[in-house]
Give the backbone structure.
Amino acid sequence: MKITDLNPKLIWECFDEITKVPRPTHHLDRMREFLVDWADRHDIAVATDEVGNVVMRKAATPGHENAPTIILQGHQDMVAEKLPSSNHNFLTDPIETIVDREWVRANGTTLGADNGMGCAAAMAVLLDDTLVHGPIECLFTVDEEQGLIGANGLQPGFVTGEILLNLDSEEMGQLVIGCAGGKVTVATVPYKRVASPEGMIYYKVSLGGLKGGHSGMEIGLGRANANQQLARFLCTFAEKSAFEVAEIDGGGLANAIPRDAHAVIGVAAADVEKLLNLAQEFNSTIHAEYAGVEEDDFHFNVEQVEVREEVIDMLTAHNLIKAVYACPNGVQGMSHAIEGLIETSCNLASVKMVEDDKIEVTVHQRSSVDSRRDEIADRVKALFSLIGAAVAFDDAYVGWAPNPNSKVLKVAEESYRDIFHAEPKVEALHAGLECGLFLEKMPALDMVSFGPTLKDIHSPGEKANIKSVEDFWKLLTEILKRLA
């Protein structure tokens, strides 16, 4: 079965078109061109702005011209993550989708349902002339996943709606009315390349096959952080033996929990047995600790590799390992205002050797309290400053304060009850949404966020529940009808 065989047919057909367009964050020229061409093909009014946002407009159903204008909003970009075995090129290749019983997933990559499914739903509304609705503006923003560039760059008047339906949530039955803000911390550690000591035997120490996932939505699930667990092993081995570090690498995007990390280390022949024994012990320990949290087949390996001629100077290497091990990671505090909500978290996202003899460590902080977001970022800065790193902050964004008295929320709640004969969950998220930035620019906006059920987003395990897409469409179209 293909996804175009699924119902509601309009959404899945639009999503299928989107999956054929390469659209990783910061590489959206082709996606923008696709959206403009798609609108022209369907005789839909379309405009773009300086940062690459796209808006499409549809007139109200006859008789509903005086209803409030509704903004349907999603973001164009997707998180580009893949399995180590995948040869997929996110800059050129379409996503290969697979219908897997009640789910749709991709072949070894992220699916891009975050937020391709929201964009597809907005496009389906534009195409479906059987719906009842007021004036519609569909806003497709750029680079939400890193920097919220489209929302930050939105200019007054580009959209004029009074109500915004954000289609970027990942649990059907959940109505979102608030989210966390965030900030990215980048520590740049300089190092010297020195000659490898004579007689060293080199091993690649690697941890991989972890679940990873969204660094906001899934940070509270207790999943292993590949960077920190690798540093844990190396710090433990450093207590038993001296070693050189020739290479270290782990993680990827700031908003994804790192699934894979490795280091290439050099040890003296006399210490090889210590390394292998400790590796066997650590492998048993980490599998026991994460039983039931990670899949059983995640791996921790130590394998001999070719001799390296140069290594990182030992002081920097060992200071870096200690700092990575000590770095705040995971849940840092729970909300005092909303029971069960994570208030503050930290994701030790990546450790990368970059050009000019530098190593970059990227850490993503989130909090529903801006001062706590800044405090945890300052702690990360203080830690890496101790080892001589230059620390900078990037991509700060504000949270979205909940408004339990929202009128559109009441409409969404009533619609959900009448369709599904159940109570929706009204919640704030620890993840980041663009809504806080929209509210800064348009303080009178009334907003709610909802979407179909997606699992393991920001990882190659990302999948969309087929039945929930149908329910999502029912809810969206009913809300539009009632608002009209």
